[in-house]
From TrEMBL:
Matches recorded under Pfam families: Cation_ATPase_C (PF00689)
InterPro entries membership: ATPase_P-typ_cation-transptr_C, ATPase_P-typ_TM_dom_sf
Catalytic activity of the protein: Ca(2+)(in) + ATP + H2O = Ca(2+)(out) + ADP + phosphate + H(+)
EC number: 7.2.2.10
Domain of life of the native organism: Eukaryota
Entry annotated with the keyword Chloroplast: no
PANTHER family per the UniProt record, alphabetical: CALCIUM-TRANSPORTING ATPASE 9, PLASMA MEMBRANE-TYPE (PTHR24093:SF520), CATION TRANSPORTING ATPASE (PTHR24093)
Protein name: P-type Ca(2+) transporter
Chain ranges of the Cation-transporting P-type ATPase C-terminal domain: 61-236
Compartment(s) of residence: Membrane
GO cellular component, one term: membrane
Length: 260
């Protein structure tokens, strides 16, 4: 092999490696965007459903405006930063290329989103309507504030633990490689510390009261359930056809049947 041929081969090899890295990081950015969308939609769907159902049934909302702003702040900012820093993995290169018309929200994401949102809404609505029977306070106002504080804290705990689930929308082991992303671990830890400060020291600002260790443990356990629930949810098969296309086809069939 001549020297020129060796230089050409070396140049082509370097170009192929560079192209491979570009594709790898491009797929990683796309995957991280999907992770954050799944995570954020779960937060919004659960919060909206809880407040709407509570407002219609009882006229009050368990999650105040300040609490919702706090949730959006830590989830939109810190949550997005944590999931955006996920490094690329080798499994990304085994995926098929995504077409221009492919939906950003896949059926797998819808499945994961609905499983977590249904669980959160169910548990928090049970606390909202039956929480008074578990709390023993002298004042009705204190009981209501305490109940709403537990609902708010349990809701945030669910989002903190669900952030790990968002790392692996398709994988069973959501902790794989988590120790390699120190920024993710640091952000989750900081979110937890900030939540403690909100509950224990900023009660007037967030309309909350201090919780004892049993109540904190209950909130953490409610959030922990999201981990085994995510594994069970991933056993549910999903169709390959995107949900948006299935709905559009069903709408067209209904329209044709009416015009026929």
């Amino acid at each position: 092999m001549t020297q020129n041929s060796a230089l050409v081969l070396e140049r082509d090899t370097a170009f192929c490696l560079l192209l491979l890295q570009v594709v790898r990081w491009g797929r990683s950015v796309y995957a991280n965007i999907q992770k954050f969308i799944q995570f954020q939609l779960t937060v919004n769907v659960a919060a909206l459903t809880i407040n709407v159902v509570a407002a219609i049934s009882s006229g009050g909302v368990p999650l105040t405006a300040v609490q919702l702003l706090w949730v959006n702040l830590i989830m939109d900012t810190l949550g997005a930063l944590a999931l955006a820093t996920e490094p690329p993995t080798d499994s990304l290169m085994h995926r098929s290329p995504v077409g221009r018309r492919e939906p950003l929200i896949t059926n797998i994401m819808w499945r994961n989103l609905l499983v977590q949102a249904i669980y959160q809404v169910t548990v928090l609505l049970v606390l909202n309507f039956a929480g008074d029977s578990f709390l023993q306070e002298e004042s009705e106002t204190d009981t209501l504030t305490l109940k709403n504080t537990i609902i708010f804290n349990a809701f945030v705990m669910c989002q903190i633990f669900n952030e790990f689930n968002a790392r692996k929308p398709e994988g069973m082991n959501v902790f794989k490689g988590v120790t390699q992303n120190r920024l993710f671990v640091g952000i989750v830890g900081m979110t937890f510390v900030l939540q403690i400060i909100i509950i224990e020291f900023l009660g007037k600002f967030a309309t909350t009261v201090k919780l004892n260790w049993q109540q904190w443990l209950a909130c953490v356990c409610i959030g922990l359930v999201s981990w085994p629930l995510a594994v069970i949810g991933k056993l549910i098969p999903v169709p390959k056809t995107p949900m948006s296309r299935s709905i559009l086809r069903a709408f067209r069939r209904l329209k044709k049947s009416r015009t026929a």
